[in-house]
Input
Amino acid sequence: MKIELSAISRKVQGTGASRRLRKAGRVPGIVYGGVEPALIDLDHNNLYHSLRKEAFHASILTLDLDGKKEKVLLRDFQMHPFRQQVQHIDFQRVEANKKIHMKVPLHFINADIAPGVKLSGGVVSHVMNDLNIACLPADIPEFIEVDLIELALNHPIHVSDLNLPKGIEAAGTHIGDAVVATVQVPRAAIAAEAEEAEAAAAAEAVDQTADAKAAAKSK
Output
């Protein structure tokens, strides 16, 4: 998916200048990496709606800065504590021949037919919702699919179990052993099973007592 946004260079910086930009419906930001950092500002409404799209966070973006286009990645942004207002945004320039590290969302499929759900009555728990990866810019996927078709109770899926696209590698310490998803039995079901077991034990005790009394009377 090709995503493009426009920005203009800003000459002034500081709290006062940023406040005036926000009042004018603009968002102050910065582009770093490669050459000198560039101070920029963007239209707030366009940026706000872009940030609501998942692909915007995991794609190479085309930034049109003063009529010159360059490839960038979203690296950070700050929101107002209680208003729906973007306060600041950071982008990083990317180079085609250099690997980058970033987070990519995970999309889970076949949860409803996973053995742990269908046969054991469990509920899928997403331990991870995104994955740190390393790859060349051209190989960045919008998301990574996680197939839960073999997910069973007490057999979680680890990062090492994922079928990563070509050119993509998981990044981070001991990432291969990290749990991605698991199946948990709801507490209510566990409690119900315990109550059933207690009731069965109590009924068995009553039956044994009755049998003992009957045996005593027959002597």
Summary: The first strand starts at residue 3 and ends at 9.
